[in-house]
Amino acid sequence: MQPQALKHLHDDATRVMVVDGSRLVRKLIADVLQRDLPGVQVVGCASIEEARQALADGPVNLVTTSLSLPDGDGLALAKTVRESAGQAYVPVIVVSGDAQSHLEQRRFTDYVTDYFDKSLGHEALAAFIRGYVQPAIIPGATLLYVEDSRVVAEATKRMLERQQLNVLHVMTAEEAVTLLTAESLGRNQHRIDLVLTDVTLKGELSGRDLVERVRVDFGYGKRRLPVLVMTGDGNPLNQTALLQAGANDLVLKPIEERLLVTKVLFQLRLSRLNPRSVV
Known about the structure:
transferase, 5-stranded parallel beta sheet, Rossmann fold, kinase, CheY-like_superfamily, Histidine kinase
């Protein structure tokens, strides 16, 4: 079975807009993208004004922007993209050296899709962008998925399995801890590559408790075992607490397949850039 294409993100003439005040940075990103995404058209812009002109010339599939631009910031550019005709659903990624702070303080706006930490490098950025415009399967990847609603679990599993991901579903955090313990002892048939958990669960342990167990009790760092937490809680303080507890990222409910798949595949690719032993 072939993975289902996310049709509203991928076509034969993918256009990615890269907005950065540095010509060198724009070229580096463009070179990596054109190498990894054959046929991609990279539209380089040095400012918000240049981006406006480029948007007037035709639609784009994705926008990356630095946080600081000569005539404004990435947040202002994101608003400009959203207000441009036909650009309402285009992912806008802010590339920042302070991305973790933005994540933890939940400085998202309605216009920004996600933040990317520029310290991870251009190769990782290209993988991140590819996740949006051309999701690629991760052969043999196994997700430990914790969700106490069977209805929600079945729907989410289908989203993930369409990308040929192996999903181990359990209903409680306690069951997840048992499987992680078995893996740490070499008793699991499948190596767990990523944990995806709801924050509110039946049982004594919550999703946040599970994150803390992964980071503290098992000693797994964010690159060794990524953890994504699904939450419908819009309170920025509660979201920050989940990230500070050790979650790599959040997936906000209601679940949108495009973003869930992108975040999962990106964290898997990022984790595999380094050996499994890396903390």
